[in-house]
Prior knowledge:
CATH superfamily: Acetoacetate decarboxylase-like
Largest sheet: 7 strands, mixed, barrel
Number of helices: 4
Oligomer: single chain
Strand order of the largest sheet: 1-3-4-5-9-10-12
Strand content: over 45%
Amino acid sequence: MAEIRTAMMIQSWRRMTFLHWRYPAEAVAPLLPEGLTPDAEDGQVWVGMLPFLMEGVRPPWLPPVPWLSAFPETNLRTYVRGPDGGAGIFFFSLDAARLPAVVTARATLNLPYRWARMSLRTDGDVTEYRGSRRYEPRGAGYRLRVRTGAPFPAAELGRIDHYLTTQYRLYTVVGGRLMTVDVWHPPWVLHRAHVLDLQQDLTAAAGLPAPHGAPLVHASPGVRTRIGLPRLVGLPRAVS
């Protein structure tokens, strides 16, 4: 994908861990808005939990602001097809540690952000992520410890590895209408990773059954991104 010329936001996603589980498409489909269908293969669709550190968050015409522009975030997402046949992601939830970021994302793109107490700590090759949503009756949270290893040789990365980590479109519903937002980033440098401990109820809070089995895991030092302007599904995007 060509780099987005007119960006709404610039961000860097650092210390990323990708956890993915397979789900029956019929468990995911009822949770999607009208117009989206699970991007399923053999009746199965992937659901991902991605904790990371957001850095350098800013509009393209402003410099980053200390504290406000850097914070932990964790999203829960799945992979979908739009009514135009386009592939992309749909977020069940996005937890963030900065209230202004939560309010802005909900107001502008109607993304399901939640304000949460969050932390991200590293000790050598081990990273620990923690999160707990604020002011929600049922609550939701997670604790993840993961050990990151060496980069994957390019020859070992297959179609699924690229599919789960290289998505350039998100879908959301704004004012009752299905919208897309394009996201540009360079290719991820993917590392091997191993889960040491995982406790989470983000999937349950989203209305999903508990995941079965160990997740497929990737890690990455991160990428710089450019977030495009929202547009109605079917309208052309502006790129360089």
